[in-house]
Structure formats: C-alpha cells, structure tokens
Amino acid sequence: MANSPYQHLRKLRSTAESGDANAQWELGYYYENGLKSHASKVVVVADPKAAIKWYTAAAKQGNSSAQAALGVILSSGGAISRDLPAAICWLKMAIAQGDCSGAFNLATIYRDMGKAKLAFRWYEKAAAMGDNDAYLQIGLCRLFGFGARQDFELARASFHHIMACAFPAQFSQRSNENARYWLAILDLIHGPVKKGRLAQVRSLLETANADDDHEQANELLNLIGKTHHLAAA
Length: 233
Description:
By secondary structure, the chain is an all-alpha fold.
C-alpha cells in the first residue's frame, strides 16, 4: 500500500534534516508550491521563506535543481524580498551544471531588467542547451529587434522550430500556441492577405486557440472570421 502524503512528508523531512540534498530540494518545492492530498486536504501550506531555507541547504551542496529554483524564487519578489544579484549567482551555478531552465530564467531576468542583448544571448544559450521554450523568446526578439537584429525570416524559423518538435514534452503547450499565433501575425503583416494566405492564418489561429484560452488569437479570429463549424458552435 502506497504511503500517504503525510507519511511521505514525515519521511522526507527526516531525510532532509539528515542532510540529503535531493530531499531538501523536494521539501523546498512543496513549501514553494504547497501540497494537497488526493482528497484535496492541505498537507503543506505554501511558505516561501521555508522554501528558500530548504532550497539553500540543497543548493549549497551543489543540487542544480535547487540552485535553479532558488534563482527563480529570489528574482520573483512577492512574499519575499527580491534579491537579483543572489538570484543571478545561483542561476549561473545551475547553468554551469547544465541546467537549461537556469539559462532561460537568467535570460528572463535580464529581459525584465531591460538588458536586451544579454537577454537574447542567454535565450540562445538556453535553446542550445535544450530548452525549446527559449525558441519562442528568440523568435520574439528577432520579430521586434529586441537585443538582436530584426529579421522576420529568422523569427519565423524560431516559431516553426517549436511547431516541428516531435515530442510535446520538449516544450510547453503555451509556447506552441504562441508560436502559431505569432506565425499568423507574420503572415498578416507580410504583404496583402490573399484567400490562400488567410486560410493559413485562420488555421494557425484556430490551433493556437484550440482550448479557447488564447484571447489574442480569438480576437483576430473574430476579425477575419472563423471556419463555419467553429462559428456555429
């Protein structure tokens, strides 16, 4: 019989307190995000300060997942004070161990700081390390000339890369939807919209909005018209 979440938590805490870095990282994760039982009862209440405590313990032992998580939580602010220098330091430690999410999050920090060239450089490194979600950001940088030379065809290639990935687990669903949305935008702004191109644009927007949760794609569909079966729904 499988252990209950409460039993797992007790064992996990004991292992973490004994100094096990993986257990410390996992305990930090539960404190960052909270944990509920299968009956939706709260097992762990989200506590960012406790998350930082356990992430730090694991990160100091070289756990790259904890280093990356610590970089994110320290850069996000909210319930805890933002510490960008520390966040950047921990993310670079994670990156040195091959953590591609660390490179993506470091790029996002630089983006939000307005350091466009640094952001673009780190998004490229994240992509080279295997983070396919980074291709969406690279495409947007190329599309708008943010930190890189504006180039519509290179932007298009980045968006197509996400769509061409064989395994959905290699990227987030939202990245795929957004890649389709921005490809549609590129088709709309690249010269006159002829009947064939409009059908292609409509197809991209409808797949981007397949779950009816992409507001921008839906707005454009309302403008150019949906396919008959969708319009009648």
